[in-house]
Amino acid sequence: MMGIEQLTLNTPTLHEECIQVGQVNFFYGKNGTGKSSAALAIRDLAGDIPVMIYNEEYINRNVQSYGRIPGVYSISSQNVEIRQKIDRMEEELERLSRQKEETRAKLEEAKRRIRDEEESNSRALWRATAVTRTQYPKAVAEFEEDVDGFAAELMRYEPKEDTDQLIRYDYLSGYEARIPKYVYFKTVPSDIFPTCDLMDIPIINRSDSALAVFFKELGNLEWARSGHKQYGHLKQCPYCSQVLPPDFEERFTASIDERYARQMETLTTFAEEYEKAATQVKAILDENRQNTFRSHPKPQYPDLADAVLEKIEGNLAKIQMKLATPRIEVRLEKIDLEKLNREVITLNGVIKRHSDSLKDIPKTRERCHDMIWQSMAFSCQEILKLREEMEERGREEQESLERECRRIESTVAALEQEIEEHKASLTDTSAVMKAINNTLSENGFTGFYLHEKADEKNAYELIRNGQAGPAHGLSEGERKFVAFLYFYHSVIDTLQPDEKGTPKIVVIDDPVCSMDSEVMSYAASLVRDMIRRCITPVRPDEACSCILQMFCFTHNPAFFRWISDPCIPDGKHCFFFLISKNRENRSSIRRCLKGENQAGRELVNFSPAVEEYQAMWTGYLETENVQELLAISKCLLFHYFIGICNYDGKEVSRTLLIDHQEAFMQANENGQSAYNIVSSLLSLIEMQTSGPVTGVYFDPGAVDADRIRFVMKRIFEIMGQDQHYKRMTHLQFQIA
Known about the structure:
By secondary structure, this protein is of the alpha/beta class. The chain folds into 5 domains: 6-76 and 427-605, P-loop containing nucleotide triphosphate hydrolases (Rossmann fold); 77-129 and 384-423; 180-201 and 270-357, no CATH class; 207-256, no CATH class; 612-735. Helix content is 55%, strand content 9%.
């Protein structure tokens, strides 16, 4: 089974870059040259071949904090994804819990406010009914110390206008069991008063006798007629006592015409009958006035009776005026007996009702109780209306908040069930955890190890050696290393030890960012193991390795050298590449091949990753510029003898310039001795210890590059470091 044989890369910095690749491919380049884009492009070019890529995305996908528990982590992309879902659900659960508490608090606040409003309203109702409660204490006795209960009870009754005459007597019979005996009131016949049409028309005597004329002239006909009626039988004048003439009766009768006489007779009869009726009515009214029953604190009957009597007296006076002066017109007041009689009927009905109440005291008490409460409700209608509106608003608000609480509780229950289902679906990663710990132990790593948390499935604590308890945070380097350990065991199929793994392409993109040197070295050893597995199958019976092809990208020269140096001689399986960027922000990929020796016949791999010290040696061997070579040589001597070997600069100068002076005194064909070259080369060392060497004048133009290299070789030989010189100059031919 073949992997990718040719890469054609089109990325933001790589344009139509086409390269041949091998089984194991090393790419070295600085940050920003397009390594990560190239690594991702491999996945698209692999076709049906599975590709496993270790990069920042893989790290974030496979190693995450376990929820919000400090020092506890999830491992594997599936578990991380599930855990992230669980975390989001738990965050939502917390939000809902806060929302529920806030809603509960609002509900309790609403209940408290409603209770306060109800208590205030209850006190208002209590005050408004004070008179009735005082008047009928036994009807409200059960609420004597329960203002709120009284208000709630009052809400049950339909308001009805006060009927105190009924309440008062029912209260006596129903609650106090004492019923006074009352006499019924009498009504006045509505037709008791007679009527007369002559009251409002003039009555005139039309006789023309001498006596009639005399009466008319005196205007005293009615006076004379009245006197005659009273004293005519005496036959003598009532004033002078003279005997009346024998014909006086005839003459007096002749003075009054027949029509006038009849009218006056009718009017007189009417007056008598009206006075008789008035007497009867007065007697009835007087009798009713003596009745001890009172229907109301301000009874209506006496007022109505007084009004009737007043009109009767007025009408009697008007009748007398008419009799005295028949010719005048008189209009009598209408006496409304219907209203008076209706009041009598009402009073008699109350009397009868109260008389009947003795027959069923409990029923009377119940009726009285309802009337008292209905009467109180009527007197407090506005307050009760406010209470009803207040209770309606409060009920709606409470129901709304309670519905919201139930909705939240339902959502919380569903969310908790879903969280449990997700937790149950977590993949068991205990085997890979043990494999990671074994790998760390076998390689002598002592920084940390993983420990499964007892009460959390597939959750791991990172334990640092020498510290008690779990670490409360992974450094970025540690997190990447844990992810790389998981990646390594996923690649080599640790989880399926008895199954033949599917061959795959492995891409490693800069795994060592933020790692310290110890962790980096362990990561490098794991990469070398994967390279070995890729090139050489693990079991003899395997047709191919679980790793079909590898691509390693890094910007770290040390890491690159650690994973690739052993592979430099293997030009058949291992390819080396350098990714670089020009000033136009375009990157290019160059395969790192060179001649096997300086003559250069066969092309072999060389490493594009050179450390600063190694780069200086490369420049030392390649440059022919004397000034540049002098500068590089000075830096090499300083870096090695002072920086690496920790020599004293003054001692190095004394050894070379004084103790072995003769080794550098021979002059060249230009007459320039090597002594001045040594003095110049030691200027950085001297400057480090006692300041720059003075009094040495050296002309670089008098020497060539070979002379300088000869002096450098002699310096390392005299200082006993010739082996280092040989190794560094020989190594450059391998990697340059």
